Amino acid sequence: MASSQTAQDLEATVEIAAPPATVWSLVADPTRAREWSPQVLRTFVRGRPVQEGTTFLNLNHRGPLVWPTTAKVTSFDPHVRFAFRVAENRTTWSFTLEPTADGGTRLTNRRETSEGISALSLVMTRVALGGVDRFTAELREGMQETLAKVKAAAEASA
Fold first, then answer.
1. Which of 9, 60, 112, 158 is the most exposed place for a label (fewest CB within 10 A)?
2. Which InterPro entries does this one have (predicted)?
3. Rounded CA gap, 23 and 29, in Å?
């Protein structure tokens, strides 16, 4: 595992037996994040429809600890890619959709840290969330849980 000083990109992928349009309708609406992510309590979107440049506020939690983050949609390519940058920690989260040969979708969830993670976020993670390595492991598990929930919902509606 990387040291707690290292910003790690994270990625998880799942195959879904539903077309990209179905999967897109689930992942490209930030207000639905609480249905998928074990960390998100609620999302407030500023402006509709959601598009590149839309901003939103997430209320995140881990047990009794609750914290807000603000984000801006940086990529909104229907049925292909939805991404947003979190202001407080400088990470970019995305969903990339690829059609499969059998009419399904390969969905990839990523956390990119190309700008590193903000010093404030690293300190808060060490102080309140048990350290960067532990929190990163939780994020990895959360990504798997998110993809499993999206898969179940998409396949149930396909």
1. 9
2. Polyketide_cyclase/dehydratase, START-like_dom_sf
3. 11
Token look-up 């901003």 returns 55
Mean pLDDT per 10-residue interval, the chain, length 158 residues:
59 98 97 96 94 97 93 98 97 98 98 92 90 93 98 94
CATH number at 10-157: 3.30.530.20
Q: What is the pLDDT of residue 47?
A: 85
Q: Which residue has the tokens 């959709």?
A: 97
* In contact, 43 and 56? CB cutoff 8 Å: yes
Residue 112: both structure tokens together: 């990119």
pTM above 0.90, yes or no: yes
